[in-house]
Design goal:
With 458 residues, the chain is α/β, with parallel strands linked by helices. Helices cover 32% and strands 18% of the residues. Strands 8-7-12-13-3-14-15 form a 7-stranded mixed beta sheet, covered by helices on one side. Strands 2-1-4-5-6 form a 5-stranded antiparallel beta sheet, covered by helices on one side. The chain has a 3-stranded antiparallel beta sheet with strand order 9-10-11. The longest helix has 23 residues.
Amino acid sequence: MKITRLEIKDFQQFKDFELDLTYPAGHERAGEALRKVCFIGQSGTGKTTLLETINTLLAAERYTYASLENLETLISLEGISKNGQKGGVSVAINKTNQEKKNYYTYDGIWSDYDEDHARKMLLYFTAGFIFHLNSEIELKEHEVKEIFALTEEKVYENTLGDRKLKYNFSRDKISEIWRNILSQASNYMVEELKYSQNLAKTLVKKPEQAQKLIAEFQNWKQTAYNPFEKIAKILNPLLERFNVEVKTDFDFEKIEDLYFIQIQQKEGNRLPLSGWSSGTKQLALTTAPLIALNTEAAIILFDEPENSLYPDIQRILIDYYTQIAPEAQFFFATHSPLIASQFEPWEVVELGFDENGKVQRRNYYEGENHVDNYTIFPQYLRWDSILTHSFGVSYNGNDDFRGELLPKTLRLKKQLAQMEKEKKQDTDEYRQKMETFIKNAKKLGWTEELRTFYEEDK
């Protein structure tokens, strides 16, 4: 399932708001649902509200109302399945008595929408969700549930039947989410622990049988599917920038070790969850679900994916996520120009207030919605240009400081050039001006030659 359209008639700061979430005319995928969408805009323009709206509608239990003709639609989503079947869901109110209760009406079937009855997967990573997982102790509050199986041949297999698969990483119990997602990984560790315990007992009571048990253990290690190897293969290339990595072997120290992936420093020292940096948590706790769950029919919502991540990771983050879950549809809300730069212009939804204080989308094209009519291309802009063209930042630095120093330095540059024409380089005045100019130029970040500078400073 992919969302193709969102309409909001009147809800909070949105009124008569429509989003066409398909590729524009002239694109090789024209009319198909966008694979990824980026919401940007000033705080308060409703980026998170849109994510919450999508989450609420897709996570709602099915409801059939007898008198559909009495309902007035407030919010609606439209989508299309992999086999071309259209469907939708909407929230409505009763027009006759204006009941405040929301009615969820379904124009099609979203849970069993295609021939092989693939399930809808909904993942919602809220801003700052990593801080809901405060300690490893929380992870032992729930029993491991056999919900998802990681296998070598087919990584994704769920056994939930008709139950919707949805996770909200701020409202749901974080410990239960991770116990479910990593159940197969936990089972692998439990099995390895059993072998270790049996071997220890055998060495004490029946040492003559130890070699046989060691051989069985080694054979199991070689043939059993190790979920951590797959997680490490995908996650470690980014984690190595933090000088840490996912452990692919298992060291049992306490019961919490059975319930979560383990991270170690490159030197081999294991880090408890409480010792992980915020950036490590952000990457590990968002990547693991994308690896472990069936994302073929998934809608994945990310609010502020840049949280706690350095710019070098932000600039590759969207490609990283979409490559892990290539069949999913992603919705991101961000304040980062580095995140926005990874989207084509038709994938960017820039929100702003109109003269009535209602939110509208700013179009990046003129006339028809055609690939040739777009005027802003975030992928090709410098970071500062993205801030200007897409984020509405009209200044090029800290005006309180740069705005004062820049004109002084430009005047000095002109004075030095004039003195050079007059052959006054050997004067004390010239040397003093040059020394001041060099200091100022370094503060402004001009090039090492100090006689050239950035375009915006001309």
